[in-house]
Design the sequence.
């Protein structure tokens, strides 16, 4: 079983719609969860973090966490062409500093 | 400005040569990381270090070596034993602890000729 799984996409979403990105993880020791956005040829940048079950909203972005189901998601409302990028999920463990990423989901916003 | 500096940005190497990628941070972070990214793929962990003079292998450490003699520096050597070294290499750091996020450098793109 892969440690962190994401649908590689591409996920195509019309401009103005909601984009939904999903991530499952295998290690129940995962405590903190991060979503990074990566534009082609660039390094990743943090867009959301979530630590507790439930939803966390920041502008057009909402992260959702369900530790019992080992599932974390990212919703992007009012999708813009500038949201077209690869989104990487990274759970982290308390017991050490190892950080593993999912393969990422390529998101394409259709104008 | 605080941040992570990787150099060189682009590097070409002949087969059989070792190359060293530099990574320096002035964020006073304890933990540092090296990742490899191939086209259309996610980030794969090569090595990471939690403190000076200590480091651990990631998922794809074979053919790579690192050192952590100073808190600010975590160089990566791609050795001739790495069979397919052409890739985008990313260095990152974090403060460590429970809620650590990663700060990334701009990356180094290595091409083997």
Sequence:
């Amino acid at each position: 079983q892969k440690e962190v799984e994401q649908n590689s996409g591409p996920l195509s979403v019309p401009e103005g719609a909601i984009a939904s990105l999903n991530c499952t993880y295998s290690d129940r020791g995962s405590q903190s969860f991060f979503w990074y956005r990566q534009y082609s040829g660039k390094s990743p940048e943090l867009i959301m973090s979530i630590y507790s079950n439930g939803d966390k909203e920041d502008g057009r972005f909402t992260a959702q966490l369900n530790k019992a189901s080992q599932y974390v998601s990212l919703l992007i409302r009012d999708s813009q062409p500038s949201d077209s990028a690869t989104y990487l999920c990274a759970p982290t463990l308390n017991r050490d500093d190892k950080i593993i990423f999912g393969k990422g989901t390529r998101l394409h916003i259709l104008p | 400005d605080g941040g992570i500096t990787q150099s060189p940005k682009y590097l070409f190497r002949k087969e059989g040569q070792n190359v060293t990628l530099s990574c320096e941070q002035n964020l006073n972070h304890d933990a540092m990381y090296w990742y490899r990214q191939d086209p259309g793929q996610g980030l794969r962990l090569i090595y990471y270090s939690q403190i000076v003079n200590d480091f651990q292998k990631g998922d794809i450490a074979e053919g790579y070596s690192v050192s952590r003699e100073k808190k600010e520096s975590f160089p990566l050597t791609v050795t001739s034993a790495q069979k397919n070294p052409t890739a985008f290499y990313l260095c990152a750091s974090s403060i460590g602890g429970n809620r650590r996020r990663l700060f990334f450098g701009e990356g180094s793109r290595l091409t083997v000729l």
